[in-house]
Specification:
By secondary structure, the chain is an alpha/beta fold.
């Protein structure tokens, strides 16, 4: 089964919490803090695996998580780092943020490995927070939270040339004739249910062709199979538009070309403007020139003035095929050799703010109705905030609320009129 799209949830590892402990040894009854740091959480990494050609591994499993960091220990022991999780994908996979559809990474060309979500940092143990005024800190830094993201994986085939056209016009027959591919061929619509790749081997340099199945009118809106496979046209530099010049099924080849180009433009505005070549197929069953205008002449008259060359071919007999391939080879040489890549639009790291520094909130052991709040960030803030001004005190109140300190005080049962002491600051608590 060919799978070229999957939606999964990825989660990096949580950072391990810092540890609170104090040195306890014989003859040293009041040792200093020795709590160790937590380990770093594991990263989520996507890596190209040349042995993979579909996303089938991600169709039956929904969530992927890296390892969490271990907490720190006593005696300055550092917690172990969490294991990274490496997700293998085929070359050409584009990782998108699911909600916005914005590109996070394109695993193509030289970009064969990329970290998508970084694990949380481990928290500092209490040994880091000893100061001349606070020699026995009873708090440590919690590990940074894990990051979780829903992403869409889309495989966009890497091919120089895309074969486009309505079903049953001979795309698979053409591909089997000019490449080493062996697509399924039959005389009914949607014989091809997955894109086929083949390599055209020619003197002076070959190129890769992709047969894009399922294009019909309305494909860009999801009709037929076009919505599933239009994405594979996006990397191609040149498109060979194959039409049934003999109108075996009663279709108008000129009208077909306009309809397919309209679908390309509706899917992505610039696709229909890429270099195209029209291959008027089934010459072997075309009638001789008569009173009515020959289909090949009509196609040339309609499209060559627009800069789109028309070649008459027979995919069955091989008539005209080499001439077409030589033209495409020359055209590719004139185009930039750089592969078509999708630039990043979304950085997951920017959508997660940094972690909060730790603090403790507890009842005072020796004073009734008194609560003590301590923490390094709070201590620093008191040094630069003018609490004498109304605006400064309001700013400090917002700080306590946003960092969850007021919630913790309420959780401990603080009542209106109780005392809150934060280092040298002391005030009565009243709920707003």
């Amino acid at each position: 089964m060919f799978a070229d799209r999957a939606k999964i949830i990825i989660r990096s590892g949580k950072g391990g919490d810092g540890h609170v402990s104090f040195r306890r040894e014989k003859y040293i009854p009041d040792g200093g803090p020795d709590g160790g740091d937590g380990g770093r959480g594991g990263d989520i990494i996507f890596e190209v695996d040349d042995g993979e050609n579909t996303l089938i591994d991600y169709r039956h499993r929904r969530k992927f998580a890296a390892g969490d960091g271990e907490p720190g220990g006593k005696r300055r022991c550092h917690g172990a780092d969490g294991d990274n999780l490496i997700l293998k994908v085929p070359a050409g996979t584009v990782v998108k943020e699911a909600q916005s559809g914005q590109v996070i990474a394109d695993l193509s060309g030289e970009n064969r490995r990329q970290t998508i979500l970084r694990g949380g940092r481990g928290g500092y143990g209490n040994m880091h927070y000893a100061t001349p005024t606070m020699q026995a800190p009873k708090y440590a830094q919690p590990g940074q939270e894990a990051k979780e993201l829903e992403v869409i994986l889309e495989l966009k085939l890497i091919a120089d040339v895309g074969l486009i056209g309505f079903p049953n016009v001979g795309k698979s027959t053409f591909l089997s004739r000019v490449t080493n591919a062996t697509p399924k061929i039959a005389n009914y619509h949607f014989t091809t249910l997955s894109p086929n790749l083949g390599v055209v081997d020619m003197e002076g340099g070959g190129f890769v062709i992709a047969d894009i199945p399922g294009l019909i009118e309305g494909a860009s809106d999801g009709a037929g199979l076009g919505h599933e496979f239009l994405r594979h046209v996006e990397r191609t530099k040149v498109m060979i538009h194959i039409v049934d010049a003999a109108s075996v099924e009663g279709r108008d080849p000129v009208d077909d070309i306009y309809k397919i180009n309209a679908e390309l433009r509706a899917y992505r505005a610039d696709l229909a403007d890429r270099p195209q070549v029209i291959a008027a197929n089934k010459l072997d069953v075309l009638p001789e020139e008569g009173e009515m205008e020959h289909p090949l002449s009509r196609l040339k008259k309609e499209f060559e003035p627009k800069g789109i060359p028309v070649f008459g071919i027979s995919a069955v007999s091989g008539q005209g095929v080499r001439k077409l391939l030589l033209y495409v080879q020359r055209l590719l040489r004139e185009l930039p050799s750089k592969p078509v890549l999708f630039e990043p639009e979304y950085d997951p790291q920017l959508h997660y703010t940094g972690q909060k520094l730790p603090f403790t909130v507890e009842r005072s052991a020796g004073e009734a109705n008194t609560y003590v709040v301590e923490g390094p960030r709070i201590e620093r803030m008191l040094g630069y905030t003018n609490l004498e001004s109304e605006k400064g005190f309001q700013f400090f109140q917002n700080f306590l609320r946003e960092n969850g300190i007021l919630d913790q005080l309420e959780g401990l049962g603080i009542q209106d009129g109780d005392t809150v002491r934060i280092y040298n600051l002391q005030f009565d608590y009243y709920k707003e």
